[in-house]
Every structure is written in structure tokens, then in C-alpha cells.
Amino acid sequence: MPGAHLSGLNCRGSTVAGSIVGVPKKLDLAVANYFSSDMSVLLGNGDGTFQNQTKYLTGDRPHGILSADLNNDSKLDLGVVNSWEDSVGLFLGNGDGTLQNQIIYRVGSGPLSITVGAFRNKNKWDLAVTNTGDNKVKILLNSCL
Ligand SMILES: [Ca+2]
């Protein structure tokens, strides 16, 4: 849902939905807040409403965001492009609606968007990041066992 705008959130960046708590029919929402350099996570109530946001610090000017189980522990994780820091921040999910502190990966100049794909191993999600500064796509291969 790139470009979504929600009242009360500082979201020039992107949004993503997934079950961060791990209840498949209760979708949660995460928003990259571009101007405040953080991310809002809103846990779903399962009836179309959400709990109050919990904020997590990201890098400078988060833009693209994704949800996927990146470390194969069956808990949803979030990845955020820190567009002014040339990095991606990964937030591993704890499976209870909370996230661990971000792990930073350098990805090149001017990253903007991020997606997942099984580029090397069909059982592992790798990351692809588009860079506007050097006009390249950076692939981060998943090395989790
Ligand atoms: Ca995970």
C-alpha cells in the first residue's frame, strides 16, 4: 500500500500489513514515518479497528517498508529503508506484537523501496532494495539457517 495516508500518523513513507502478533486473521499495520524517523505499529483488533500505535526508532527518513519472516522462526519481521542513511533496518518480531531493536545493513546510495524474493534458496526470503542515488538494485542474501 505505498503512499497510504492515515490521520494522526506522520507517514510520507509506506505502509505494510501483516500479522505481527501471529494471529492470521488479525492483521496489524506498520507505517514508516518519513519526517519523524520512526515507525508506527498498530496492532489489529480483528474487527477493522486498531490499538494505539507503538513507535520504534528507525534510521533517518524511513521510506519503504515490508513484512516477512526473515529469520525463519515463524514470527513476522519488519524491514525499513532508511533513505537518508543508505541503509535498511531489520526489526525481528518477538511473536507477541513487539519488535527487537533494528539491525542495520548498508545498501548503497539513496535507497527507497524494498521487497522480498527467494533469489537463492526457495526456503529463505532475501531482500532487494532499489537505490535512487546510484541507480542500482542491492540484493541482501539471507544467511539464516
Ligand atoms: Ca521472524
- Stretches where pLDDT falls below 50 for ≥5 residues? 1-11
Class from helix and strand fractions: mainly beta
Walk across the major sheet and give the strand order: 1-2-3-4
Termini Cα gap: 31 Å
- Molecular shape: globular
Proportion of residues in extended strands:
35-45%
Number of strands: 11
Bound molecules: calcium ion
As a whole number of angstroms, the C-alpha radius of gyration is 14 Å
Question: For the report, how would you describe the main beta sheet?
Answer: 4 strands, antiparallel
Helix content: under 10%
Could you walk me through the main structural features you see in this protein, from its secondary elements to its overall organization?
This protein has 145 residues and is mainly β. The protein has no helices and eleven strands. The chain has strands at residues 15-18, 28-33, 38-42, 54-57, 62-68, 77-82, 87-91, 103-106, 111-117, 126-131, 136-140. The strands form three sheets. A four-stranded antiparallel sheet has the order 1-2-3-4, with no helix packed on it. A four-stranded antiparallel sheet has the order 5-6-7-8, with no helix packed on it. It is globular and about 45 Å long. The relative contact order is 0.16. The model is unreliable at 1-11 (pLDDT under 50). Residues 69-71, 73, 75, 77, 92-93 line the site of calcium ion.
